[in-house]
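== Fold encoding ==
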Amino acid sequence: MKLDTKRKKVAIVGAGLVGALWSVILAKRGYIVDVYERRPDFRQAGYIGGRSINLALSERGWKAIEIAGIREKIEAVAIPMPGRMMHGLDGSLTFQPYGEKGQAINSVSRGGLNVELVNIADGHEQVHFHFNQICRGLDLETSAVRFEDGETGHRYTVEADLIFGTDGAFSAVRNTLQKLPRFNYSQHYIEHGYKELTIPPREDGSHRMDTHALHIWPRGHFMLIALPNLDGSFTCTLFLPFEGEESFKNLQTEQQVLAFFKKYFPDTLPLMPTLVEDFFDNPTAALVTVRCSPWNYGEKVLLIGDACHAIVPFFGQGMNAGFEDCTILDGLMDKYDEDWPAIIEEFNASRIEDANAIADLALANFVEMRDKVADPRFLLWKKIEKHLHERFPDEFQSVYSMVSFSHVPYSQALAEVSAHEELFERMLAIPKVDENWKGPEVEAVFKKWLGER
């Protein structure tokens, strides 16, 4: 049955990226939306950096933004990055395009984008934000949400027709569901942590490196990345094991930090005048993958975004996957004429497989970014990939392009990984393939592989 959206009250727990965007989409459909956020209003308090990884907005994210009708506003705060720039130990630079000409992922500041989305949502009269409100879980008997006012300590309960948990990897909404029988939940921390660093702009406000690239310093078991910001700076992130010979544990003094960067990232030292201060002022944060099922409780409560599928950032898909949740739900609203029990049932049944797939892809891409991108054999693989797509656009697309530049389900992209590995093992075994990678032998192997599928 079609719901009367004019009287349909929605509670969204979490005013992060997914919660803010989802409130815009619901408001455009006429829903009355109350958004509850545990942080003070970060538009007034100011976004606090120090533990952020810049975001890479790609095709899946843009689709949700277009549904919300706000693409032009978001494009104004995004910087296109058509490829990645690898920095060698000797200071050499190698540029590798991500996709076809005109395709790019886009660098956006997490804090800046969050502020922009909240401002856009706040412009809808049906959306009301409530900051400094701490979620204390769900009342499962009534499907109401319990809150505590962060300033007064007053505790109260909110009832709504629909409740969405968009409150991140350590979701308070999910925490209640975890206590239910037959609720599956796992979290996995990798051995690496991350620390935010900064390359400031030049005195004239310009960038100190190529603006339209994601910069990577791949060093085998660890890496440094840098993404451009509109103010001329770069947000850098060091991914390093917590323990071991080369680890955060062994970087305890100014001398140790400078020696480490001089050894592994020497070209960054002239660019990072506040390296030591940033290193010791900013926290070392952990990287977690969250998986759970089901994502719903009954016909009124649904988890989306990091609350049900937080992933590591190495495919640039965490935000994009959360935004794609919004896209899929929007499509299901049309399919089922806003019959929410049917919408929730199909979303829970179909989306979990894809969320688990992008979690696996993101973990695997860490190895590619920190290690393989500096391997000549891998770079040759990428050249052949690009060549095959140009020659056979309907028959071949790289896994990276499937994930970043299409709406192919994540589970389908994951299924292609082993098939592509087999194909390129055959191609790279061709004698002198590094000299003849556009030759007939490569295409013959490809056509044989295609015929076997």
